[in-house]
Amino acid sequence: MRINISARHFRASRNLKNFTEDEVKRLKKYYDGIIDCEIVFEKQKEIRSCEIMLKVYGTRLTASERTDDHFKSVVGAVDKLENQLRKYKSKLRNQRNGRSETKIPLGS
């Protein structure tokens, strides 16, 4: 997985970059097919935001979090992506097994 980190309106510290890379690598245990990861930090007065965009086979997953600290924002965004990856993986599993997500009523 390739990880690209960028920051708007400030310079991201090495500590923040290392922490972010460790948190994002944690997502591999939920789905191993992550191709690319782009992380954008932004600083606006008192608000610190983190947006994480994952490219997986067939789709792109995005999560963002806004808090008063970049580290909290990273944790929140990664938690959201964990849920999205679980849903995506179960959707793939259902398609492989021939199960449909929509239920068709029988008879009338």
List keywords for this structure.
single chain, 108 residues, alpha+beta, Double Stranded RNA Binding Domain, 4-stranded mixed β-sheet, 2 helices, 4 strands, 36% helix, elongated
Walk me through what this model shows:
- With 108 residues, the chain is an alpha+beta fold.
- It has a single domain, classed as Ribosome hibernation promotion factor-like (Double Stranded RNA Binding Domain, 2-Layer Sandwich), CATH 3.30.160.
- Helices cover 36% and strands 34% of the residues.
- The chain is built from two helices and four strands, in the order E-H-E-E-E-H.
- A four-stranded mixed β-sheet has the order 1-2-3-4, covered by helices on one side.
- Strand 2 and strand 3 form a beta hairpin.
- Helix 1 packs parallel to helix 2.
- The chain is elongated, with a radius of gyration of 17 Å.
- The model has no long low-confidence stretch (mean pLDDT 90).
What would you say about this model in short?
This protein has 108 residues and is an alpha+beta fold. The chain has helices spanning 14-25, 70-96; strands at 2-8, 34-44, 47-56, 59-67. The longest helix is centred in the C-terminal third of the chain and has 27 residues, at 70-96.
Question: Total domains, how many?
Answer: 1
**What shape does the CA trace take?**
elongated
Helical proportion, percent range:
25-40%
Q: First CA to last CA: what distance? A: 50 Å
